[in-house]
């Protein structure tokens, strides 16, 4: 078929895209021809399944392939397709979202992390963690054996009590502790999704979730986010057209847009889910950052159709990797079995550490301080971006992010690659799109964006674009 060159500076994803485009252009692959399955291609070429998934998705987005449920990928029949009209494919040097996602976690040495997804260490509950560590050492933490399948009972009970404050009727028996929210989402996905299923996700949305679902063989369809929450007309149309199995969504302080879906939209979403028999997975990991008491899908539905996901990574520490999943009893039993099969129990030690921090006595004061700091950061960063000519998607004044774009900076992926040379990590919008494409939108983490170096770099890039346009 064609040979990949791992030593080449061209990313493997781009090599696969180029290779198939060349075969189609030369008619070595005819319209309607079936491509090797994702796993077969990955095995025969010695690359990861993730690499092939992203390459095939790019080819679908670019109009070269079509995906058919339970059948695979086929060369798309296009009007007027002819080899002479296509010409030789050009090297695809586009932004590699999967590579960039890895770099986010490997590039902690960058001086300024304006696009990252975590809090500065001095904004986290370091004092509470240290006190909890000392208490564990005094009590004599048990290092032998494993934790409980459902997780540390005292923490599960505490989570259930906290959920009751938010009008979610749950007991410890409805709570499953996980290794962060990512494992919780993975368990929900593996419980609900089969290869070939259509799954709805927020667009733009959470890139790690998209990779996870594609790895399971799901066909992703994006539900547009608006400054006011969901595009309900688009959602209803997508439900009718695609008959999805599930919708993974983040109604509150959504990443990357930070938009919030109001009560009326949540009611309508539940009505639509019931009418079309769609499971809902509510990712509410930013709930503790919200100064307002808002209803959730889980509080309105009481776990009949909703699986609820939470985490302490944004408020205590991402390093302790403690998240949780809340579901009705029959679903929770199945999810617990999946957890045990994939990784046995979660860490009883870190769960006890989280419990100690949450009950240390200063937790609520810490949350208020964190929310106040985020509100102040929003005010400063919003104003700085507006002063530079940026358009803000919305102004939530809470949560971690701002979603913004500048009319002269049309490719945030290219801008992000240039920023690395100035030791700046940006959050390019292409990373968050269901169908990656060049976009000027980018995500700013307000906790890391109150820095003159960031605005100096952006101002310089805007000036360069103006000079180029005037030349």
Describe the model.
- The chain has 471 residues and is α/β, with parallel strands linked by helices.
- 44% of the residues lie in helices and 13% in strands.
- The strands form 3 sheets. An 8-stranded mixed beta sheet has the order 3-10-9-8-7-4-5-6, with helices on both faces. A 4-stranded antiparallel beta sheet has the order 11-12-14-13.
- The longest helix has 25 residues, at 363-387.
- The radius of gyration is 23 Å and the shape is globular.
- It starts with 11 loop residues before the first helix and ends with a helix.
SS field, number of helical segments: 17
- Cα separation of the termini: 45 Å
What's the shape? globular
Task: Tell me the β content.
Answer: 5-15%
Q: Whole-number radius of gyration?
A: 23 Å
> What's the pLDDT, averaged over the residues?
87
- Given helix and strand content, the structural type is alpha/beta
List low-confidence stretches: 80-95
Précis, in short:
With 471 residues, this protein is an alpha/beta fold. The protein contains 17 helices and 14 strands.
List keywords for this structure.
alpha/beta, globular, 471 residues, four-stranded antiparallel β-sheet, 17 helices, 14 strands, eight-stranded mixed β-sheet
Question: How is the topology of this model organized?
Answer:
Elements: H1 12-25, H2 38-45, H3 49-61, E1 65-68, E2 72-75, H4 83-86, H5 97-106, H6 126-139, H7 153-165, E3 175-178, H8 180-192, E4 198-203, H9 207-215, E5 219-226, E6 229-230, H10 232-242, E7 246-249, H11 263-276, E8 279-283, H12 297-301, E9 306-311, E10 323-326, H13 329-343, H14 348-358, H15 363-387, E11 391-392, E12 401-405, H16 412-420, E13 427-428, E14 442-445, H17 452-470
Parallel strand pairs: 4-5, 4-7, 7-8, 8-9
Antiparallel strand pairs: 1-2, 3-10, 5-6, 9-10, 11-12, 12-14, 13-14
